[in-house]
Amino acid sequence: MSVETQKETLGFQTEVKQLLHLMIHSLYSNKEIFLRELISNASDAVDKLRFEALAKPELLEGGAELKIRVSFDKDAKTVTLEDNGIGMSREDAVTHLGTIAKSGTADFMKHLSGDQKKDSHLIGQFGVGFYSAFIVADKVDVFSRRAGLAASEGVHWSSKGEGEFEISTVEKADRGTRIVLHLKSAEDEFADGWRLRNIIKKYSDHIALPIELPKEVAAVEGEEQPAVEWETVNRASALWTRPRTEVKDEEYQEFYKHVAHDFENPLSWSHNKVEGKLEYTSLLYVPTRAPFDLYQREAPKGLKLYVQRVFVMDQAESFLPLYLRFIKGVVDSNDLSLNVSREILQKDPIIDSMKSALTKRVLDMLEKLAKNEPEQYKGFWKNFGQVMKEGPAEDFANKEKIAGLLRFASTQGDDGEQVVGLADYLARAKEGQDKIYYLTGETYAQVKNSPHLEVFRKKGIEVLLLTDRIDEWLMSYLNDFDGKSFVDVARGDLDLGNLDSEEDKKAAEEVAKSKEGLVERLKTALGDSVAEVRVSHRLTDSPAILAIGEQDLGLQMRQILEASGQKVPDSKPIFEFNPAHPLIEKLDNEQSDERFGDLSHILFDQAALAAGDSLKDPAAYVRRLNKLLVELSV
Ligand code: ADP
Ligand code: MG
């Protein structure tokens, strides 16, 4: 054993401690995955070395074949993994094996309930990684040296997976990382060649570099143990270079876990080889579940980029638009140069055309999923629907395609689930209906009972109910779908077009005429609070309603702008009343101007409340209402 110097004991970051605890307790029925995680890391480390060596060939230090070796010692109860990848410096080991760098981790950890069953589900959202070693080991030793550093600058990291780890500087002749797992006494089954071989075949066959195990050689009595011979146990070729028909689903799934650092199987994937003017292969995956940091600005996103089979960078963001940031996978190009940088990627016209082709691939894959696996698509929508809604604003060219993938709640459902696609909506539209009707609001409960829906209910017309925070913003980017325009039922002068019969229209006109006097009186009474007063054709049950001006901001947009500290342009609602309602009849007959004024203000305020808005002067509302109640009771 070499000399250890500069020994230090350091504490794990709090989040690491929490993760360790969670991992050890929730993954134990799946403990063999530790090997997959450590091999995945070793493979990443080799990828990084290969890439850095393009610019600095001396990093290869003589250029032994790049590989991973897994060995074991039955007596000592250890399993050892060794790679000749990029390795770690002392600082690397302290940060990479002592902290979690993902932004939002602390917030995420706050969601842990302490209930192991529930929490074990959360681990999937987080990923497992290096610390999974502690599922089977009660002590882990890592010996590493970063490529390019002197042999004297090796590092020894050691921990029992409790609160702290030890770190010291050691001599390490070979570049790369050796990890020694001291197995818990109940887990010594892993110190076994047959077991290890099976696990590697099962989870890591797709790893592109050789994973070697010592060849089992029967000992011959009286003879000296022969030198260890190594044999490759995995297929050791890049999975995406193989023809689609030869890759099994399980292989695609395991490869996904490696690329995406995910714990669960993907929902769907699309593997394509493009030949012609541009040549590249892509393997794109839709995850089953959203990562915890989907909405973190800093969260990793993008594809793994290879150039002619050589890994070039992680998180290459230029190949997909932001609203598809949840897609994982690899793209391997024959056209790019090996020393391509992020800056170059941003400007290269080759990337632009790859980006639009890959975007289309993803949208096609999602369309297929929606069509063939509607239940799975529901799950997809729950996880990623909000992000997809960013699409129409970002990706003008694919607006129609994205719109077809959107799902909404509607008056046809009764639980607010977002399951209605625009194509479904149009397929069951009323005869003569040439519009797509929708209503936005704060909550499903509120829009579901909105007076704006009364006439639609009466006529049996479906209305989409949009209550996500970004819905109004989304709709400002969608004008039509399949040639039918969108109509916000709370906006402007509702025109039901062919859905109203000629008689209906005529009757409405006559009523409007007969109420001109009331309209004028209301205008005077409500004064500045309204932009306009008119007879409504939206209502069957409620006395009055507030409509938004054709060009005005809706409530959601106003609230978003206000919350972000922006000045919101003043806009006044349109007051519409239901001439058939008894309260309106009463109002029309009211002789006292004072009572007329009070009652109209009350109706106005109630309409605002029903729309989910807050009152400008709640005290005045209460005063007026109480005044009427007192008069009523005498
Ligand atoms: P992830 O692989 O998702 O980054 P892990 O927990 O699996 O997370 O690994 C943490 C980090 O530790 C890696 O990102 C890498 O920087 C470092 N690391 C782990 N194993 C190795 C290795 N064999 N060689 C070099 N670095 C490694
Ligand atoms: Mg990892």
Could you explain how this protein is built, in words?
By secondary structure, the protein is an alpha+beta fold. It has 4 domains: 5-233, Histidine kinase-like ATPase, C-terminal domain (Heat Shock Protein 90, 2-Layer Sandwich), CATH 3.30.565.10; 240-382, Ribosomal Protein S5, domain 2; 393-499, Rossmann fold (3-Layer(aba) Sandwich); 502-551 and 570-633, Four Helix Bundle (Hemerythrin (Met), subunit A) (Up-down Bundle). The protein is 38% helix and 19% strand. The protein has a 9-stranded mixed sheet with strand order 1-6-5-4-7-3-2-8-9. It has a 5-stranded mixed sheet with strand order 10-11-14-12-13, with helices on both faces. It has a 5-stranded mixed sheet with strand order 15-17-16-19-18. The mean pLDDT is 92. The site of adenosine-5'-diphosphate (ADP) has 16 residues, from α2.
Structural class: alpha+beta
Q: Please, how many helices?
A: 23
Low-confidence stretches: none
Helix amount: 25-40%
Indicate the mean pLDDT.
92
The figure for the number of domains is: 4
Tell me the β content: 15-25%
Question: Based on DSSP secondary structure assignment, what is the total number of beta strands?
Answer: 22
CATH second-level architecture of the largest domain: 2-Layer Sandwich
The CATH class of the largest domain turns out to be Alpha Beta
**What's the gyration radius in Å?**
33 Å
Sheet with most strands: 9 strands, mixed
Give the strand order, joined by hyphens, for the main sheet: 1-6-5-4-7-3-2-8-9
Shape: elongated
CATH fourth-tier homologous superfamily of the largest domain: Histidine kinase-like ATPase, C-terminal domain
N/C terminus separation: 100 Å
Here the CATH topology of the largest domain equals Heat Shock Protein 90
List the ions, cofactors and other small molecules found in this model.
adenosine-5'-diphosphate, magnesium ion
